[in-house]
Amino acid sequence: MADNPYAVVDNPDYINLHVSSNRGLKTFRMNIWSSIGELKQEYSKHINETTEKINFMYKIHTLRDEDTPELFDMKNNDRITAWFAHKTQMETEAENNSGRGMEDLRRDPSGIRTDESLSDVPSTSSNDN
C-alpha cells in the first residue's frame, strides 16, 4: 500500500474524490469535513479558471462552497462532476450596454420597471376632482 499515495491508510477522515469535466479527470485527497469550496479552489488552480465559473455536482445535488463530503456521505473514490458557468447573451448585453450589473439583472431580469421605480412618473389618473 505504500506505493499508492491515494490509499486511505488508517484514517477514515480522508477520502479521494475524482473531479471530472470536459477538461479531464483529476483526483484530490481531502478531509471529509473540509469544505467543497476548498476543493473548488484547488481544482480552479489545476485548470487555470476562476472559482466563480466552476460548479460541482454530486449525484443529483449541486454542491455549494460550504458543503462538505461528510454532509453527502461521500465515500473514497466517489466522483464529482464539474461544469462551467457561461454568461448568457442577455447578461452580457445588460452589463455592457446599459451599465446594469449581474445583481440588478437577478433582481429584475425582465428590465420592466417596478412600482417603486415609477414613483417619479406623473400620475395619469382620470379621477382628479
From TrEMBL:
Species assigned in the record: Caenorhabditis tropicalis
Protein name: Ubiquitin-like domain-containing protein
Spans annotated as Disordered: 89-129
InterPro entries for this protein: Ubiquitin-like_domsf
Biased composition (Polar residues): 120-129
Residue spans of biased composition, Basic and acidic residues class: 101-116
